[in-house]
Amino acid sequence: MKLSLKKLLILSFSLVIVISMTIILLTTYYTTKTALSQQSFKIMENISEFAIDKSKTYMNVASDASNLTKNLEKKDVISIKNETTLINYFYEQMNINQYFSAIYHISSDDTFLMLLKNDKGYLEKSIKYIDNKKIVKISQNDKFMNKINEKILRNDIYNPKKRPWYLNAIKNKKSTWTEPYIFYTSKKPGITISTPIFDENNKLSGVIGIDIEIDKLATFINNLKLGENGKVFLINKSLKIISLPSDNNTLKSIDTIDSNSLIKSAYNELTRVNNNKTLEKEFFLSFTKNEENYQAMFLPFRIGDLEWIVGMYVLEDDFLGLLKKSNNLNIFFIVIITLISLIISIKISKYISSPISKLRDMTEKIELLNLDHSSVNPNPIKEINELITSFNKMKVNLKESYLDTLFRLAVAAEYKDNDTAEHINRIGLYSEAIAKKLALCEEDIYILKYASAMHDIGKLGIPDKILLKPGKLDAQERIIIQTHPEIGAAILDNPTSEIMKAGRDISLYHHEKWDGTGYPKGLKGEEIPIFARIVSIVDVFDALMSKRCYKEPFDENKSKNIILEGKGTFFEPKIVDAFEECFDELVSISKLNS
Asked: Which domain CATH number covers 507?
């Protein structure tokens, strides 16, 4: 498949523009998306670190207070034997550290003392064994530790030594955090740090415990903003979600929450892509839920013996939504720019290809020896203009050479008949004038004008004694003279141009008559080629208006009348009408070219 220069230029420009715009759009979108994704991951990292710092702050204060209590007791600054001093110390610690919900101490003789924060102020509880009899006393104090009421619990079943905090401390023999559990008294989820106290003989003398209700931590974590639809959460080692509210004195587990939960979807994706392996460092992933894309991150951290994971997810559109809207706007502008660029490229392509196309058309006309069309206009593009200039010069030279040769050949034929070059020139001008009245196309008029010169080329083959005879020809001589159309057709046989082809037809048929009485073929009406029908009139008209060896020239009116008398017999009526319309012009041509 061959393409025109214009189509090739338009296609090339279009491909370059479309490919360039597509590359710009895609690279801009994906680089921006990558940058925003990295930024979202950075934001998630910062939030996770903030959540971890907050969690550690909760716990480190309790750890420090626990160690302080242990050291003070070792130095006999405080002791369970002096309940008032110890309770006041607990009160001071809880005022200093708002995260604490309870502080308690159990000694090796099972004496237990606890201060618990509640809605009314502080609840003080003590357990003693006197004569193997358990005595449980509680007193409600206000926020300034003023006693409101006091009572003895007769059927209290609380046993500190069976609680997770005590068992952890005894088992590990060091400060230990419990996993989140439901507190016995407040019925709220929390964690406890318990620290064993040993005497100088390394014998257990007691255990200190500090409770932190994690609902405040959970509220803080839940309130962390991560986009419009994001969420931060904490998961402990046993896969309980610390940051979700407890129901029925239990903590929600990953396995028990709703399957439609995004937390569960994020965690399930983590276990899938991480092949259920232990999470040792931050892990980023993406997942889809309800045909929406989410990004998630999980980051493990340790606080003492605790192994927790801070997790979070965010709707991708919270970060990339603006990019997608911007990208849609970019697509709109790029489409507009592309269309404008394509229109400009089409105009540039036309601008470049137009002179080339004109040169191509001119080449086709030159190939047909049609040399009368105007030259191609100059072009600002240097190389194209040089080509046009050279081509125009070539066309002018070729036209001059071709028409000169054509004219000289025609003159050679007329020369034997004592006619002049003016006769040939007049025939062409007559034919042109009549053809214009007949509304022939410009190209046909051009061909007719120069092909008409060939009408009597066949006279080259007629003997001079017949051709130049001053009197009337006899019958045999007339037969010979009437062979000149076929002689002309033979001379012009196998024409290579439209002018030569038309010249052959004119030479062969210009003596045919409209009524079929002409020669050499006896053609009738429109069987006679249109060019030959025109030349037959103008040839007779010029012969009437000119001097011949056998006659003097007729005046213009007599010549006109003779032509009009041949209307419908010798000549086509329509051409005679055209002749009559431009008669004055024909007379003017005759006078100017005599």
From this structure: 1.10.3210.10
